[in-house]
Amino acid sequence: MNKTVRAHTNIALIKYWGKKDPKLRLPLMSSLSMTLDAFYTDTSIEKTNGENQFYLNNKKQDETNSKRVFSYLDLLKRKFDCHDNLIIKSTNHVPTSAGLASSSSAFAALAAAFCKYYNISVDKTELSRLARMGSGSACRSIFGGFAIWQKGESDESSYAYALVEEPKMDLHLLAIELNTKQKKISSTRGMKDAQSSPFFEPWIKRNDLEMKQMIAAIKKNDFTALGKLAELNANEMHAINLTAQPEFTYFEPNTLRAIKLIEQLRNEGIECYYTIDAGPNIKVLCQLRNSKEIKERFERIFNSVNIVDASFGPGITYLD
Ligand code: 2P0
């Protein structure tokens, strides 16, 4: 019996960047994301009499690359009293670990595939909590459209839910893949190091206000308010990285060139905004009528750059 589960990646418009409890992956702030149709992970699970195995894109992964997946599986096995050795097969339709949110779809798909394989009956809230233990952002990928991860106080109260599952908003995200090599500083490490910034405390304090403003923008279908706030929030996150002790940044020269192009497009009356995650790649937020022109302008400046046009994607999907 085949039990493949598909989870789409999500991009945070209000970002998660700081943990209260690293072991349980409890965040210091709530976050809000958009689930994308264009990027996803398919995962299936089989039993084996041999050792645990992890295949990514049809390639068996070595011990180092499998470690995080296996330790997450151990956690699930302990929790649900399962003792089999397993073969995990995942296909990533998204560049891996390049700041394009591959861990959000990877761990959401893995949590759901595990529950499906063992016929463990969980509701979406519980599934979101389980996915969170694999990777924080994964808890939001259980849901489509706009999702909110409420920070909560504990394992029980920290989970995501759908704000709007099938939004009517005219919102497109162009993922400009400037560099899809695996990043050097993992998100887990980056958000830990960022806590040494003198701006870390103000960053946490602004979260309530920014969440309220973003929810209001979404409820009003106000693209301008959403775009401006998403850009501000991303820049706040990158500002605390730049002011950490010692400082670090995910930006590359091309990231800044892309920011300048977006400013220029805005000056020309083509409305667009950006958000950037734990990597050098930029995601442009725009409306359908402008997406073609923006794409062409990026292609002109960045030779042979891959650009993926994404809009709202669904939550967890069971393929068979
Ligand atoms: C987010 N990111 O809200 C933020 C913004 C990247 C930048 O969540 O340590 O892979 O596994 O909980 O979820 C990426 O961090 O980190 C992330 P862990 P995760 O989307």
Provide structural commentary.
The chain starts with a strand and ends with a strand. The model has no long low-confidence stretch (mean pLDDT 95). It has 2 domains: 5-167, Ribosomal Protein S5, domain 2 (2-Layer Sandwich), CATH 3.30.230.10; 172-310, 2-Layer Sandwich (Alpha-Beta Plaits). The chain is α+β, with helices and mostly antiparallel strands and 320 residues long. The longest helix is centred in the last third of the chain and has 20 residues, at 223-242. It has 9 helices and 14 strands. The chain is globular. The site of ligand 2P0 has 14 residues, from helix 4. Residues 178-308 form the Mvd1 C-terminal domain.
Short description:
With 320 residues, this protein is an alpha+beta fold.
- Secondary structure class reads alpha+beta
Bound molecules: ligand 2P0
**Biggest beta sheet summary:** 8 strands, mixed
Distance between the termini: 9 Å
β-strand number: 14
Query: Rg from C-alpha positions?
Result: 19 Å
- Approximate helicity band: 25-40%
CATH fold group of the largest domain: Ribosomal Protein S5, domain 2
Task: Please tell me what the overall shape is.
Answer: globular
Mind telling me which CATH architecture of the largest domain this is?
2-Layer Sandwich
What's the CATH C level of the largest domain?
Alpha Beta
H and E string: EEEEEEHEHHEEEHHHHHEEHEE
Number of domains: 2
Strand content: 25-35%
Q: Mean pLDDT across all residues, rounded?
A: 95
Show unreliable segments. none
Domain Mvd1 C-terminal: 178-308
Domain Diphosphomevalonate decarboxylase-like N-terminal: 7-160
Pfam family, one: MVD-like_N
Protein name: diphosphomevalonate decarboxylase
